Amino acid sequence: MKTLVGAGSSSPRLPSCSLRLLQPSKAPISLPRCQGGSGNETSGGKSDLSIGSPVVVVEAPPTLKTATAMSSLRINSGLVKQGDVGRIIARKPKDVWAVRLAIGTYLIDGKYFKPLDVDE
To answer: Which positions make up the signal peptide (predicted)?
Structure first.
């Protein structure tokens, strides 16, 4: 078996290719930036939503995904119905929100609910 330890040295020698990976790059990395408006066009008017905002379900989603560490995806067999009221717990990517309902917390797409007006 070939060893990387030098003669009389107690520290291991690294191959030269590893040394190049450990040295910081001198050229800055340019990352692409998202172009476009403020993002309100794609949110469907949900810019007034924040954590803790009350929402009402306007259309029952066909599938439900639980907002737990080990989430599960299941068919909505009448668990979440139109008119159910919940509260926003967290914002997820692509207009998906964690909504706390009476029966549990689920990840629901923004098209299935709207902000609850207290005047209604």
So the answer is: none
